[in-house]
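# step 3/5: fold
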Amino acid sequence: MDNGFFKNIENRTGVNMKDIFELANSLQNANFKDEKTVRGVIRKVSRLANKPVSKQLEDQLVKTIIKDGKKLDFNTISNMMNKR
């Protein structure tokens, strides 16, 4: 893919692609049964998406993610945040 493609995504979303790639790399080997790790991921996604997450919502997301324990990605967490 060329740089124009990524610039287009950055312009439409306002999110730096470097930040998205760094987040994606950190998710590959993350332990989603570990509460501290899950909270860190939620906070990173919240910052990247520029969408504040209340303590109550964070707690609900953590509980759901730890219970399911499956691999997550940026879109999955973002979709969970948007449903609340």
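# step 4/5: annotate
The chain has a mean pLDDT of 79.
# step 5/5: archive (pending)
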